[in-house]
Amino acid sequence: MAQPMCPKCERKIFEIKELSPKNSKWKYNFVQCATCGCVVGVVDYYNLGALIHRLASKMNIDLEAD
Ligand SMILES: [Zn+2]
Fold first, then answer.
1. 50 C-alpha to ligand 1 centroid (Å)
2. Residues pairing with 32 in the sheet
3. Does the global pTM surpass 0.85?
4. Chain-centroid distance, C-alpha 15
5. What SS3 state is found at 55?
6. Ligand 1 centroid to 13 CA: how many Å?
């Protein structure tokens, strides 16, 4: 299976960097090459899946039920 590779330096180790872009009210997690910092993706700062499960749990909602 192919491994993700930095398009700039061709290394294969990535890291998350928390950042608020200029003129943004929100923080994001940038996925970047751990060697050269080339950004290969941006994801929400909050893990929405985890937040939904926590909220459902507090509201006693079983998300697995049909
Ligand atoms: Zn790189």
1. 30
2. 15, 39
3. no
4. 10
5. helix
6. 8
Phi-psi region of 60 (alpha: psi -120 to 50; beta: other; left: phi over 0): left
| pLDDT tens-digit readout, 41-52 | 999 999 889 999
Q: Express each pLDDT in 11-33 by its tens digit.
A: 999 999 999 999 999 999 999 99
Q: How many Å apart are CA 15 and CA 41, to the nearest integer? A: 11
Nearest to 19 by CA among 1, 5, 37: 37
Sheet holding 39-44, edge to edge: 14-19, 28-33, 39-44
Q: Give the distance (Å) from ligand 1 centre to CA of residue 31.
A: 11
Q: Residue 32's CB: how many other CB atoms inside 10 A?
A: 19
| Cβ-contact 38, 7 below 8 angstroms | yes
